[in-house]
Amino acid sequence: MPRAAARVVQSRGHVAEDIRAIGLGSATDAEVDEHAQRISAVLVTRDLDFADVRRYPPDQRLGLLVLRMPDEATAAQVAEILDRFLASSELVEQLPGHLVILERDRVRFRPPLKS
User: Where are the beta strands (DSSP E) in the chain?
Assistant: First the structure.
């Protein structure tokens, strides 16, 4: 994730930590996940490994937000898609207990939202 992502989260009134800034830049996925659970945080990442619901069950976490974007996506593009999601309080309120796959033109919740 670009460092701009944390600034976007903060600009929308949420607390954000960049794992590089807290000494976890070289941590394993399991260590990052454990840290997020320990501090009761939603994990926001571009690492598609976190989209594996067998390994990271969403109902056992505050929430997982995985941005699925091309590797060549710029920091500005990542920040823009994240900001668009965070601007929707209706979507953000439904994040707890879900994996959200955030793409340029769609948002998918796992498990799916109830109608």
Answer: 43-45, 64-67, 99-102, 107-110
- Cβ atoms within 10 A of the Cβ of 71, count? 5
- 43-45 and 64-67: which strand pairing? parallel
d(CA 80, CA 96): 22
Q: Is the pLDDT of residue 87 over 70?
A: yes
Say how far apart CA 95 and CA 52 lie, in whole Å. 16
Predicted TM-score (pTM) of the model is 0.92
* Tokens found for residue 72: 């060549």
pLDDT score of 96 more than 90: yes
Q: What six digits make up the tokens of 106?
A: 């769609």
Q: How many CA atoms lie within 13 A of 40 on its CB side?
A: 0
Integer Cα distance of 110 and 83 in angstroms? 20
51 and 101 Cβ atoms separated by less than 8 Å: yes
